[in-house]
Amino acid sequence: MKLNNSEIFINGPDGKLEAKYVQSKRENAPLAVILHPHPEYGGTMNNKVVYHAYHTFLKNGFSVCRFNFRGVGKSEGKFDNGLGELSDAAAALDFIQRNNANSNESWVVGFSFGALISMQLLMRRPEIFRFISISPQPNIFDFNFLAPCPTSGLVIHGDQDQLVPKDTMIVLKEKLVSQKNITVDFNEIKGANHFFTGKEKDLVDCIDGYIKKESRLF
């Protein structure tokens, strides 16, 4: 199935999920699913950070999907405190894998609340190759389920993140970098707040560099 960057709908567990999807012209292109911030605080798939991450993967030849969690935009259903949203993310991953059967590389990317859901999805789907967790909030969400974290990945955060105390990020870093057989990189962007306001280029460069370092495509 060849699709352009038009609106599509994915069959989710609680109704249709509004999405944007581009399929790479490469037969065996890697895949990426991008997860947006908290629905109850204005998070949508059109969030600036989500948008930039989506287009960075596109420029690197991936097939990419971003979507609205249940109850956001034109997506059916209602907010489910993370449980339903995890099921939505799994449905989006199922969708992109089903439409790219020759791919052997799936990435999951999440921003803020989406970072939590992406890491939970990682624990349930052993085929996920790499993750990028942007501005996770270990002060709000419990990441102790990462015991151990099953695959290597990247955590990106700003040193001026106004929503996440530095000591909680240090604890998360110590937990993840000490695990055996995987490598979790932490990239702290100087001068960046939780939303990377004015630091979008630094964020994009960080994502782009990690893709080129880790993807089998390169």
Notes on the structure:
The chain is of the alpha/beta class and 218 residues long. The chain has a single domain (7-214), classed as Alpha/Beta hydrolase fold, catalytic domain (Rossmann fold, 3-Layer(aba) Sandwich). 31% of the residues lie in helices and 22% in strands. It has helices at 48-59, 83-98, 113-124, 166-177, 200-214, and strands spanning 7-12, 15-22, 31-35, 63-67, 106-111, 128-134, 153-158, 184-189. Strands 1-2-4-3-5-6-7-8 form an eight-stranded mixed sheet, with helices on both faces. Strand 3 (31-35), helix 1 (48-59) and strand 4 form a beta-alpha-beta unit. Helix 1 runs parallel beside helix 5 (200-214) and helix 2 (83-98) crosses helix 3 (113-124).
Distance, first to last CA: 24 Å
And the CATH topology?
A: Rossmann fold
Percent in helix: 25-40%
Can you say what the CATH homologous superfamily is?
Answer: Alpha/Beta hydrolase fold, catalytic domain
Rg, Cα atoms, Å: 16 Å
Going across the major beta sheet, what is the strand order?
Answer: 1-2-4-3-5-6-7-8
- Uncertain segments are none
Level-2 CATH architecture: 3-Layer(aba) Sandwich
How confident overall, as mean pLDDT?
Answer: 96
In CATH, what is the class? Alpha Beta
Strand content: 15-25%
Number of strands: 8
Question: What characterizes the major β-sheet?
Answer: 8 strands, mixed
Structural class: alpha/beta
